[in-house]
Design a protein that fits this description.
alpha+beta; TIM Barrel; Jelly Rolls; 3 domains; 8-stranded parallel β-barrel; 13 helices; about 20% helix; globular; B-gal_1-like
Length: about 600
Amino acid sequence: MSEFRVGDADFLLDGRPVRLLSGALHYFRVHEAQWGHRLRMLRAMGLNCVETYVPWNLHEPRPGELRDVGALGRFLDAAREAGLWAIVRPGPYICAEWENGGLPHWLTGELGARARTRDAGFLAAVERWFGLLLPEVVSRQADRGGPVVLVQVENEYGSYGSDGVYLERLAGVLREAGVTVPLCTSDGPEDQMLSGGAVPGVLATVNFGSGAREAFDALRRFRPSGPLMCMEFWCGWFDHWGGAHAVREAGDAAEALREILECGASVNLYMAHGGTSFGGWAGANRGGGARHEGVLEPDVTSYDYDAPIDECGRPTEKFWRFREVLAGFADGPPPEVPPAPPVLSARVAAVVAGWAPPDAVLEAFGGAEVARPVPPTFEELDVDRGLVRYAVRVPGPRGAYPLTARGLRDLAVVSVDGVRAGVLREDAETLERPVAGDARVELWVESLGRVNYGPRAGEPKGITGGLLHERQFLHGVSARGLRLDALESAADVRAVAVRALPGDGARGLYRGSARVRGAGDAWLELPGWTRGFVWVNGFALGRYWSVGPQRSLFVPGPVLREGGNEVWLLELEEAPRDVRGSWVLRPVAEAGDRARTGARP
């Protein structure tokens, strides 16, 4: 057991000054069987600490329905076994380019702008959740022989709000639950952010990607004493669907890291290893500059982040540059790089053998159909990740007029009397082809991820402003939701009856199989497919989308098995007419696949 505390200028471990050389690694973005390897990679880079967020919505998808809260404890145990300290950032809001910033849809849907404030309903929900989560942390603190040395209060709150009463209450909840290690906050190095996000008596840290001296000067003006720490050193960045792949040059990032350490500060690399937003949990941002009020920018499934350890767990050039820099500030030489996990032995083409139309999938896995005067939101239908089928009758007889899905979030595939009529999005809410009555209109709306940062975090999904025919609202809308977690296991998916392949590019659920010899890490390539989700042996890989920049989905080796493997694909827009050979598993280390993996200099 050790005492870890905050001194006037340093962190102190049993009275001895120590520097935290930490790396962010989210346990929920890495297959559990690969935690040990990734943690040893952090040690090999020269780090002595790991940091993780905790996504509330992952662990409580419905009120009172808990899912594997113990995963956090097991991860902290793995960190201790790897010889790492740990920083835990339990939120309740985490950002993290994660769906809704980690807040449950059922909570933000009810509270709206009252979330992340002193609102009694919000605080009651947080206190109940922390009461279930924090025992995983408390029993693993440094003063009890565990790895946890810091626990964060909220997350970048100064970028969002100014409710000091709320922050102080959160700090109180942590202490009352038994957190005895130091608390901290993290914010941008600007006066309004530091003042809005700080808690009296709690260590303040800053987040930035460069300009360490200026950032720490700002922190010192705000807090004259205490250890300096960059809680998020942004050594890479994340990607949006339809955007460019973000890359930060390794030498530039290494020099920015050196500057942080030369200031005598501790650091947390964000990300050291990003991993993957499996299961459709990737969030979204709003463009439009600093106000974050512009067009929706959904995040890709990969959370590679151009990190020093890539999505597959391999060292990049940035890894080796960081290792050299960190070696000059560590207590001793880092351990050797651990052997890479097994990779798939050879390319495998899956056989696509069956198909079920969207209506059959909805019938097998969807929620109850409801009829409302106006379209209900995803939140009202209890859909976190997934889609909703809206149906309405355009009365007639009447002429052809524009049909508009007002306040659409995010994409809708529209059919009129069973014939596809187009795809709508929030910046193009009106069908190009007018619709005449009498007609039945269906809109299959997909959420591309709830906003995880900025003033529009927590906004509802679906058709939020009504359906209009010309200027007239269409009332009497039926709606039925499909949650992705309804298809979580291969056994569940087999419940839907499949039929012969359609051969006309139809949307729906496609079933296939792949025979594997030498299972290991792989990429899944889907040439010709447009947009949807994939499951391998019941494991949800996440969203694919032909708009890029992501072209393949990472398949962790532990997901595959020797011999037969089941692959299910839910195509939401348009499939290839000929699906033969269109699902390909290939080894992660195949020639030409190492463009972002640096050889040791």
